[in-house]
Design a protein that fits this description.
- A hairpin with a 2-residue loop joins strand 1 and strand 2.
- Strands 1-2 form a two-stranded antiparallel sheet.
- The chain has one domain: 3 helical TM bundles of succinate and fumarate reductases.
- Helix 1 crosses helix 3, helix 5 crosses helix 7 and helix 6 crosses helix 8.
- It starts with 8 loop residues before the first helix and ends in a 9-residue tail after the last helix.
- It is built from 8 helices and 2 strands; from the N terminus they run αααααββααα.
- The radius of gyration is 20 Å and the shape is globular.
- The chain binds protoporphyrin IX containing FE.
- Protoporphyrin IX containing FE (HEM) binds next to helix 1, helix 3, helix 5, helix 6 and helix 8.
């Protein structure tokens, strides 16, 4: 290891772990907030109103964007460095790596899937909500209709009632699940939990965290799709 905490590969891994940890906290909050949509549109819109074009929400969005850029940029730099260091032998498979092998090998590709999904997602929601509000507009087009940019429930319901959007989002959550199963494990490993005893526990914790987060998002998508197509009642309860 050479260089400072900012330039050494251990330093970069540390920043990957810390930024990953912040993103997992955001995802946990975002998933819980979206679960509200299953119970009440007005509760969901109240949360969206709180997180709308207010200065603290805009500042949090800017900070989040920085963290995503840091996480993604470092991932690319670390991958290039690892490939250079390993030459043609990209992966040395050991028994210890069994089970996390596929996602660990494909973290950058999975990261690209997550980022492409995120771009579609931000175009669907962030652009129609926070951005529209910041631009001072009071309505936003949803197909032939228009709604207020603060009506998050109507905007999410509009997209998730269409099968292709629901399908794209589910594929995105599967990519995110694979990324998180290895990501959470790798984060704990880099932060020092790397004893033999913790190895199995960390794998188990990673799978639980990834499943809860992605399962929560998928549940919202599926319930809204079924409601949007008259298969489930709306409201559900
Ligand atoms: C059921 C699934 C999801 C729903 C219904 C949903 C809904 C929303 C909505 C309505 C917004 C706009 C909020 C606003 O601008 O006021 C938003 C923003 C955002 N979403 Fe999601 N989301 C989902 C899944 C995800 C996932 C899986 C990720 C990340 C991998 C994600 C990342 C983001 C980010 C980064 C923003 C911008 C946050 C900000 O403005 O600070 N979302 N989402």
């Amino acid at each position: 290891m050479s260089g400072s905490i900012f330039t050494s590969s251990i330093g970069k891994k540390m920043f990957m772990s810390i930024s990953g940890c912040i993103l997992i906290l955001f995802l946990t909050f975002h998933m819980c907030m979206n679960l509200a949509l299953i119970f009440s549109d007005s509760a969901y819109n109240a949360i969206c109103g709180f997180l709308g074009a207010n200065w603290y929400a805009v500042a949090a969005t800017a900070a989040l964007a920085l963290v995503v850029l840091l996480h993604f940029g470092l991932a690319i730099v670390l991958t290039i460095q690892n490939r250079k260091a390993r030459g043609t032998i990209r992966y040395r498979v050991t028994e210890r790596e069994n089970g996390v092998e596929w996602s660990s090998k494909n973290m950058l590709v999975l990261g690209f899937v997550v980022v492409i999904g995120l771009i579609v997602h931000l175009a669907n929601f962030w652009l129609k909500m926070m951005y529209t509000e910041l631009m001072g507009a009071h309505e936003v087009a949803l197909g032939a209709a228009t709604v207020a940019p603060t009506d998050g429930a109507a905007i999410v319901r509009f997209y998730f009632s269409q099968w292709y959007y629901a399908a794209i989002y589910i594929v995105w959550f599967v990519g995110l699940w694979f990324h998180l199963t290895h990501g959470v494990w790798s984060m704990m490993h880099s932060l020092g939990l790397n004893s033999k005893v913790w190895f199995k526990r960390m794998k188990c914790i990673s799978t639980i965290v990834a499943t809860l987060i992605c399962g929560g998002f998928a549940l919202v998508t599926i319930v809204l799709f079924l409601q949007g197509n008259g298969i489930l009642p709306n409201p559900l309860f």
